[in-house]
Amino acid sequence: MANSPVETVRTTGDKLLLALAVVLVVVGVVAFYALAQQALFVRVGALIVLLVIAAGVALATQSGKGFTAFAKDAYREVGKVVWPSRKEATQTTAIVFAFVLIMSLYLWLSDKSIEWVVFSLILGWK
Predict the structure, then answer these.
(1) Residue 77 shares a structural domain with residue 101
(2) Could you tell me the residue range of the domain that residue 50 belongs to?
(3) Example GO biological process term (predicted)?
(4) Distance of CA 114 to CAs 67, 75, 101, 125, Å?
C-alpha cells in the first residue's frame, strides 16, 4: 500500500475557514453553559446548530471537500461488499464459539498439568 501524502492547509482562505469553524465550536460550548437559565432543549439546540454550522464551514475548505469525496467513495465501496447470509453468519459464529471452548479447555488442562508437575512433583507441596 502506497503512503498517502500528508495534507496541509495551504491557502489563507482555508486557514480562516478552519479557524472560524473552531471559533463556532467554542461559541457553541460557551453558549450551552451561558444559557444555563434556559430549558435544556434550547441549550442543546443552540449547541447543535452551532456545531452543524461549524461542520459546514469546515467542509467548505479544500480538506473538507477531500474528506467529503473520501466519504462518498467509502460509502460506494460498502455497497459493493458481499455480506454473508444468515445461515453463513450463524455457522461461522458457531465455529468461533466451538474453537474458543476447545482452546479454553486446552489452556485450562495445560495450566493444571503444569501446576501439578511444578507444585506436586517438583516442589512436593500439597
Answers:
(1) no
(2) 11-81
(3) protein targeting
(4) 55, 51, 20, 13
